[in-house]
Design goal:
The chain is mainly alpha-helical. 75% of the residues lie in helices and 0% in strands. The chain is built from 15 helices and no strands. It has helices at 3-12, 14-33, 35-39, 42-50, 52-56, 68-74, 76-93, 97-102, 105-108, 115-148, 154-178, 185-203, 211-216, 226-232, 237-258.
Length: 263
C-alpha cells in the first residue's frame, strides 16, 4: 500500500463520502431525537405489538423498543446498515471502472507500482471511509441519546455500529469481486444498490415458511438481527466469521484477478 495512492482514492470519493455521510448522520440524529416520543408512548407500544409479525421480519420485536438502545436498533440502525452497505458495494465495485470512465486508468497503472499495490491502496481507502462512517454513526446515536433521551448501555450502541460495520465489510468483499465484470461506474452503482436491496428484501422473508424462509438465510442482513443484539448484548461469532471471511476472500480474489486482467 502507498500513502499517495490511498490519498488519491480518498480524494476521488470525497464528494460521495461527504454527501452520503451527512445524509446518514442527519437521519440518525433526527430519528434518535424522536426516541422518547415512541418509547414513552403506551398507545404507540400497543400499536407496535399488534404489528409483531411485520416487525419480526425486520429482526425487531416491540418489547425491545421500550429503551433508547432498542429504538436505535429498530429504526436508525436499519437505515445505517442499508446506506453503509450500498456505499461499500459501490465504492468497491467501481474502484477500477471509475478510472476507466475518467480516462485515468492508463496513467494509474503506468505508475511505478504493481497492480496489487494500486488495488490494496484503494481497498485501504475504502476501509478508512467505512470505519469513519460507522464511528460517526455511533457517536451521533450516543449524542442524540444523551441530549433527547437516556442511554443506559453505550455498549449496545457500539455493538449495533459494529454489526453494520461487519455487514459493510462483506459488501466491500462482494464489490471487489464485481470488478472483474463491471465496465463502468454507472453499472457498478446500479449493481451495488440492487445487490443491497435484494439482500434486504430477502431478509424480510425470514418469518415466512418453506423455501422462502430458507432463501432469507442467504441474506447478510440476517446475520445480526437487531433484537438478538439488544437482548444478548453480543454479535454472533458465525456472523463475524462470514462477513470478515467474505471481505478477505474478495480482497484476495480481486487482487489475483486484477494481476491477470487485460486493462
Amino acid at each position: 500500500m502507498r500513502i499517495n495512492l490511498i490519498a488519491m482514492e480518498l480524494k476521488s470519493l470525497r464528494i460521495s463520502f461527504v454527501v452520503g455521510t451527512l445524509v446518514l448522520l442527519v437521519y440518525q440524529f433526527a430519528l434518535g431525537a424522536m426516541a422518547d416520543s415512541f418509547t414513552g408512548n403506551v398507545g404507540m407500544m400497543e400499536l407496535l405489538q399488534s404489528k409483531a409479525g411485520i416487525l419480526e421480519s425486520f429482526g425487531i420485536n416491540a418489547e425491545m423498543m421500550t429503551s433508547y438502545e432498542g429504538w436505535i436498533a429498530a429504526q436508525p440502525h436499519t437505515l445505517f446498515v442499508l446506506l453503509l452497505g450500498a456505499f461499500s458495494a459501490i465504492w468497491a465495485g467501481s474502484c477500477i471502472s471509475r478510472e476507466r470512465d475518467k480516462g485515468t486508468a492508463e496513467y494509474l497503472f503506468s505508475l511505478p507500482y504493481t497492480r496489487q499495490e494500486v488495488f490494496f491502496s484503494k481497498a485501504a481507502a475504502h476501509l478508512i471511509l467505512v470505519t469513519v462512517v460507522a464511528g460517526l454513526t455511533f457517536v451521533v446515536n450516543w449524542i442524540a441519546g444523551l441530549w433527547f433521551s437516556s442511554v443506559s448501555d453505550v455498549g449496545l450502541l457500539l455493538l449495533l455500529a459494529a454489526a453494520g460495520y461487519c455487514i459493510a465489510l462483506a459488501f466491500l468483499g462482494i464489490g471487489y469481486l464485481l470488478t472483474f465484470w463491471v465496465t463502468s461506474e454507472r453499472t457498478a452503482t446500479s449493481i451495488g444498490i440492487g445487490l443491497v436491496l435484494v439482500m434486504f428484501f430477502m431478509g424480510l422473508l425470514s418469518t415466512a415458511h418453506g423455501t422462502a424462509a430458507e432463501l432469507a438465510k442467504a441474506s447478510l442482513f440476517q446475520l445480526f438481527p437487531p433484537s438478538d443484539i439488544v437482548q444478548q448484548a453480543s454479535l454472533t461469532g458465525t456472523g463475524v466469521f462470514i462477513t470478515v471471511g467474505l471481505y478477505v476472500a474478495g480482497l484476495i480474489l480481486a487482487a489475483w484477478g486484477l494481476s491477470r486482467q487485460d486493462l
